[in-house]
Amino acid sequence: MNLAFIKIGVIDVIDILLVAFLMYQIYMLIRGTIASYIFITIITFYVVWLLVKDSMLLLGSILGQIIGVGAIAIIVVFQPELRRFLIMFSSRYLPRVGISIDNLFYRAASGTPVVNFNAIIKACSNLSGERTGALIVLQRTSPMDAYSNTGEHIDARTTSRLLEAIFNRTSPLHDGAVIINRDKIQAAACILPLSDNYKLPEQFGLRHRAAVGLSEQTDALVIVISEETGDISLAEAGSARKMDIKALHSRLEREFSNVREKKFFIFDPVKRSI
Questions:
Q1: Does the CA dihedral 263-265-268-269 come out positive or negative?
Q2: Which CATH number applies to 105-264: 2.40.50.140, 3.40.50.300, 3.40.1700.10, 3.40.50.2300?
Q3: What is the pTM of this model?
Q4: 199 falls in which pLDDT band (50, 70, 90)?
Q5: Are 178 and 136 in contact (CB under 8 A)?
Q6: Which of 240, 137, 131 is nearest to 188 (CA)?
Q7: pLDDT of residue 111
Q8: How far apart are CA 101 and CA 196, in angstroms?
Q9: What CA–CA distance (Å, rounded) separates 155 from 150?
Q10: DSSP string across 237-266
Q11: Where are the domains of the chain?
């Protein structure tokens, strides 16, 4: 077979790599969910249509009509997955190249770290030792207003004593999630979306499934403390793993130690801190 007529240039290689990267990200996004079976079914329909469209006119016409409205169907069926993909892309890759609204309107200022992760670590250590269940959301770039509005608005400075008081078994706010935004506890007793990933471990209860569910839809870090065992887990990017208090401290320090308060530098003439 003579393949001399095939010419592959740099643009073709880039095109192939980009498609491969996109397909890999889609696979990572939907693996372990019911959406993976729907995606395989759609691919199967498309392959069959390519094979029969020239030889079996009637079947090819029917499949062609189905595929013709396939784009709309994909948007409807995969709406949660598409949203998660856009969130994942914007939170993982855009910040690496310095593209963000904050970079346009704010500047970093010196001072203490915005997120008081030391208070969070102290509270987690005490809650874990007492086997008190907890669910703590640490906001990064994804907005949390839709979830914080489901709970009780607090807007108080993050302290270990306040976190421990909220998750105390006798507290009316203990059943739900605490959302922390910068140095403030924004809300408590918040309702989080549950993950539909059927591959999660059987020992995962509602707290763990809620933590994974939120991490699937946003870029937040979610700390879970088991009420049964006192084990600490950290949910991120659709998965959760158990870690000790030292590993958690190292992870939060790495994530938030360089996060500084930001100040207006374009529209605020007096440069008020936000």
A1: positive
A2: 3.40.1700.10
A3: 0.65
A4: confident
A5: yes
A6: 137
A7: 44
A8: 32
A9: 14
A10: TTEEEE--HHHHHHHHHHHHTT-EEEEE-S
A11: 10-77, 105-264
Tally of CB atoms within 10 A around 132: 18
Distance CA 46, CA 26 (A): 17
**Measured distance CA(215)–CA(87) in Å, rounded:** 10
Would you say how long the chain is, in residues? 274
Q: What is the mean pLDDT of residues 52-72?
A: 76
Residue among 196, 177, 197, 175 nearest 187 (CA): 177
**Identity of the residue numbered 187:** A
Distance CA 32, CA 37 (A): 9
Query: From the CB of residue 185, how many other CB atoms can be counted at a distance below 10 Å?
Result: 23
CA dihedral over 215, 220, 223, 227, signed as positive or negative: negative
Q: Which amino acid is at 61?
A: S
pLDDT band with cut points at 50, 70 and 90 for residue 211: very high
Strand spans (E) along 175-253:
177-181, 184-190, 221-225, 232-236, 239-242
CA distance 135 to 229: 14
E-only strand ranges, 69-151: 106-113, 134-138
